[in-house]
Amino acid sequence: MNARILILLTATLAGGAAWAGDPAVGEKLATAKNCAACHQRLVGGDGSKLYTRADRKLKTLAQLASQVHFCSTQFKTGWLPEDEEHVVAWLNHRYYQFK
Ligand code: HEC
After folding, report:
1. 69, HSE (Cβ side, Cα atoms, 13 Å)
2. Protein residue with its CA nearest to atom 25 in ligand 1
3. Using CA atoms, how far apart are residues 3 and 25, in angstroms rounded to an integer?
């Protein structure tokens, strides 16, 4: 791995750890057809019950970040790492409220 890639990677990870995402940007991304449409089919309403149900799977901010990354990759959103950060920031701000 060359040094420039290493620096880029480190910067990305450091940025991720700071959770500098913007919830307002994340909301637009996550409520569009990308994510919400499928969750709506699963749980009805606006799909947000998936995030608030009592037996939800996620317990930490790190798990939330990895779930968003997994879904984003799986469903080929084409999001950049910072887009994922925005979505994590919004989901955490609006629903999960992990510290
Ligand atoms: C094709 C359907 C589908 C799409 C598209 C989808 N999801 Fe999901 N999502 C699911 C399913 C299924 C689960 C797991 C439900 C379960 O295990 O009970 C889930 C779970 C989640 C959870 C965890 C909920 C909990 O238990 O707390 C998050 C967060 C999440 N999705 C985010 C996203 C994001 C962000 C996107 C858009 C990139 C997305 N999902 C796109 C089907 C989808």
Report:
1. 10
2. 56
3. 31
Nearest Cα neighbor of 90 from 41, 47, 49, 31 is: 31
Distance CA 16, CA 12 (A): 6
Q: Are 28 and 77 in contact (CB under 8 A)?
A: no
pLDDT > 90: percent of the chain = 64
CA–CA gap between residue 68 and residue 74 (Å, rounded): 10
Whether pLDDT at 68 is above 90: yes
Q: Measure 52 CA to ligand 1 centroid, in angstroms.
A: 12
Backbone angles phi and psi of 33, in degrees to 5: -55, -20
